[in-house]
Amino acid sequence: MGIKWDEFFVTGDPLIFASQIGIALTLIGALAGITYFKKWNYLWTEWLTTVDHKKIGIMYILMGVLMFVRGGIDGLMMKGQTAVPENGFLNAQHYNEVFTTHGVIMILFVAMPLLIGLMNFVIPLQIGARDVAFPQLNALSFWLTFSGAMLFNISFIIGGSPDAGWTSYFPLAGKEFSPGIGNNYYAVALQIAGAGTLMTGINFVVTVLKMRTKGMTLMKMPMFTWTSFITSIIIVASFPIFTVALALMTFDRTFGTHFFTISGGGMDMLWANLFWLWGHPEVYIVVLPAFGMLSDIISTFARKTLYGYKSMVISIVMISVLSMLVWVHHFFTMGNSAAVNSFFSITTMAIAIPTGVKVFNWLFTMRKGRIKFTTAMLWALAFVPNFVIGGVTGVMLAMAAADYQYHNTLFLVAHFHYVLIPGVVFPIFAGLYFWWPKMFGYMLNERIGKWNFWLFVVGFNVTFMPMFFLGLDGAVRRAYTYSAETGFGPLMMISAIGSIILAAGFAALVYNIYWSARYADRNIGNDPWDARTLEWATATPVQHYNFASLPEVTKLDAFWHMKKNDQLQPLKEDEVEEIHLPSNTWIPIYMGVVFGISGFLLVFEWTIAAAIAAIGIFAGLAFRSFDYDEGFHVHKDEILETEGIWRKGANKGVKNHVS
Amino acid sequence: MKKSKVLLVSLTSIMAVLLLSGCENNMVVFNPEGPIARQITELINFSIALMLLVTVVVFGLFGFIVWKYRERKDNMDYEPPEEHGSTVLEIIWTVIPILIIIALTIPTVKTIYAIDEIPKGYEDQEPLVIHVTSADWKWIFSYPEQGIETVNYVNIPEDRPIDFKLTSAGTMQSFWIPALAGQKYTMAKAETQLYLVADNPGSYVGKNTNFNGQGYAGMEFEVLSQTQKDFDQWVQDVKETAPKMTLEEYEKMLEPSHLGRKTFSNTHLEWVDHSDPHSKNYTNPEMYDRGHGWPGKIFEDKDNYKNKDGNNSESINHKESENEDSHGGDHSGH
């Protein structure tokens, strides 16, 4: 088939042209660098084929941070365009593409990978396990997510970006109004990444149910484990809906079916319902693990056990139930009857009840405590007031009648950024600062951390607070420009300035990662924060088999009580047994590659080529079925040697490493 | 942590000042010009007061606890007590949110039902019916009783309930006149409905809030509220002076474009009612080329207005032959 290269590559925009060159140079540079330093073998055996939950978690986090840069640049471009009225920096089409990719990337390729990355790294350690229940499936989850993310990301230089918003409402997103292939990227890339996420959900449900160490009953699980468990259940319940919706979208766009179209008896409202049946639980999928991290971090730095543990558990279960019962609040204005809108107003406001319980429990965890202001704790503290603003505006939006005036305005945009940034990004940053030493063996610098924190928090408020008022004055979301007479100019400018401060805060985090990797103290012991849960009963960085002998748990905050009761005895030689671990495998990364190729061809609607490429997927499944690799054993000598080294210096870092 | 306290206090006060000033200043949502919008504003004001109370209490408690129990040089050997919770306290902070939710629910549900109907005091008046049809990227207003049609502006009589019947010729859009009422979606082959009343003569901004492609940002219209006398005079003038629209002109109008104001002395309802589920489909996919990127297949639909004779079998054959060469084919204009 004669490919028109000027249509294959997106042309005609200097910004995009610069990115194309930049991406090409970066790729060449990376490949050349790896070859020059002879790192291919290391990369392949240690990372690309690994099934170790810790390394997979780190790869997820790396991907999340990189995607944060991409999504953040999109956000800055939007703010740059709307800073002054009638600005000509971006045209309507470019702006539409930018806010679409900003939304999709921030939710699905930043929040999700960062949280799933932390879950991957921490959960098996917290429950005293040596890996997740299905290590190979875990690697497959990552490579599918990565594959989907990469496919989505090339859209703006090859073939054209999706441009119908992250919600991709029909009929706009259908062929009737978006005939180019841009929105195929949305349908196909999210399908691939979503399959990975669904597998993660299944994996973690089984892991938490079946892999807990002796004595760890459900009600002795750390709160992050609990929230990850509930999140996994929501993933299993809601992602299939998205899978179906995206499949129907693909049929509509590629084969001319009429599920959501205007013509042929399609129903555009059906897309909105299916999308939000997944989309609303998705909000809780990202918020709940973040709540769990906060619980563990606040409890550690207040030196107190979590207040009201039982009511915390009941709250997250209630939130997960309610999360499936509120989707209509995303379209109160769709002409529903008053009874329907009243019902969904009430279910939505009801979410404030368990959330309120959680906020008070956190506050009372700190009461009578001794609060240490580490960077991790600062993030956790900043969460409370900022999230309360997001929460109360959420209650205001939940009132259907009032929503008729807020809907689709910048008030709504401000609200969900006040929920998602303090509720997800702050806790993720808290988690990174908190668990960084376990991942890499050194801590992130606290002084740069403070810069990171203050710039980010101040920048965030300056960016999004004005948007509440713009919305109440009638400024709508997703508009690439506005006239000077609207009077939106000054507040839009303040908001744009805030976004630069916000970006500086994020840059401080990136610099911190660089600085700490080069200069931070490597000699910090296994428990630098004087923490409470089992992941701290391991070496720093964690030895690849996690635990030499699986710990036994009698209480909540197991590690804290072990320290208190002096149960951290040196390892006895006769306790040590050979440890059975799974081998590396090439199949997951191979699957990621064939899914990516097949998906790419499907995006371009070359269906026969896509079907041929999809044979590779079945080949991968067949290889896996005939894979009789039983894994390998870690020898006693190796275990004793590793354990001997770190246990000698155990606990020495306590209290000395926080400035 | 001194800084955190300072930041907290300043943030709280900034927010309070901004919110309070918001109630007095000229933000459109706080300056309703009709009974429907006024009911919503009252609900919003009530919720802001209650939410401000919640915010102040939580911020206060937060500030107090963080300040009082901070780590200091002189309390380094203080070991916090083991404390697992308190059933009484936990019940209290479950019940208080429940009470707040109930306090919000009652006026919310009342208002939801109230704004679905003709506002109190106007029930005895016959509402003026105006059909609103949104298309990319313009608003079309049809007055069936008067037999006139306007584009991108709508004139209404003051103190009389207006019954907007909303639909769309294409994408999903949202019809919003913030000074007079909340918004409702317009959707093709479906009808939604919105009542409003304007208190006084005046000019108000109406807009689309639901993103619908490249021309979205310009989708505004003017609502001009007039005295009944002026309104009647205007209708009379339109009937006498405005041109009649032809079907061809109307079809042209539905193509994606920005138009200025237009006035006609007939309505398009004689040809098509887009809210009818069996009405023809007025889409023009080939006109939505983005100017870059790879063109996808375009499917031709039987119920499209261009198939005037309704000869389906031929159009399907045509579709397949077009698909064959859609990759390298005749795509121009880049």
Descriptive labels:
heterodimer; A: 659 residues; mainly alpha; Cytochrome C Oxidase, Chain A; two-stranded antiparallel sheet; B: 334 residues; alpha+beta; Immunoglobulin-like; 3 domains; six-stranded mixed β-sheet; 36% helix; 18% strand; electron transport (chain B); Quinol oxidase subunit 2 (chain B)
User: What is the typical, i.e. mean, pLDDT of chain B?
Assistant: 87
Strand content of chain B: 15-25%
State the end-to-end CA separation of chain A: 64 Å
The CATH architecture of the largest domain in chain A is Up-down Bundle
End-to-end separation of chain B: 58 Å
CATH homology superfamily of the largest domain in chain A: Cytochrome c oxidase-like, subunit I domain
Layout: helices, strands, pairs:
The complex is a heterodimer of chains A (659) and B (334).
Chain A: H1 5-8, H2 14-36, H3 40-48, H4 53-82, H5 92-126, H6 135-154, H7 182-210, H8 223-255, H9 268-301, H10 309-323, H11 338-350, H12 352-366, H13 375-398, H14 400-406, H15 410-440, H16 446-472, H17 489-519, H18 558-564, E1 579-581, H19 587-603, H20 607-625, E2 632-634, H21 636-648
Antiparallel strand pairs in A: 1-2
Chain B: H1 2-24, H2 35-68, H3 87-114, E1 128-135, E2 138-143, E3 148-151, E4 153-157, E5 162-168, E6 173-176, E7 184-186, E8 192-196, E9 202-208, E10 220-226, H4 228-241, H5 247-253, E11 262-264, H6 312-324
Parallel strand pairs in B: 1-5, 4-10
Antiparallel strand pairs in B: 1-2, 2-3, 3-11, 5-8, 6-7, 6-9, 9-10
Written description of the protein model:
The complex is a heterodimer of chains A (659) and B (334). Chain A is an all-alpha fold. Chain A is built from 21 helices and two strands. Chain A has three domains: 1-38; 39-585 and 629-648, Up-down Bundle (Cytochrome C Oxidase, Chain A); 586-628. In chain A, 66% of the residues lie in helices and 1% in strands. The longest helix of chain A is centred in the first third of the chain and has 35 residues, at 92-126. The longest helix of chain B has 34 residues, at 35-68. Chain B folds into three domains: 2-67 and 86-114, no CATH class; 128-270, Immunoglobulin-like (Sandwich); 289-324, no CATH class. Chain B has six helices and eleven strands. Chain B is elongated, with a radius of gyration of 28 Å. In chain B, the strands form two sheets. Chain B has a six-stranded mixed beta sheet. By secondary structure, chain B is an alpha+beta fold. The chains are: A mainly alpha (659), B alpha+beta (334). Chain B: InterPro entries: CcO_II, CcO_II-like_C, Cupredoxin, CuRO_UO_II, Cyt_c_oxidase_su2_TM_dom, Cyt_c_oxidase_su2_TM_sf, Cyt_o_ubiquinol_oxidase_su2, QoxA. Chain B: Belongs to the cytochrome c oxidase subunit 2 family. Chain B: GO terms for molecular function: copper ion binding; cytochrome bo3 ubiquinol oxidase activity; cytochrome-c oxidase activity; oxidoreductase activity, acting on diphenols and related substances as donors, oxygen as acceptor. Chain B: Keywords: Cell membrane, Electron transport, Membrane, Oxidoreductase, Respiratory chain, Signal, Transmembrane, Transmembrane helix, Transport.
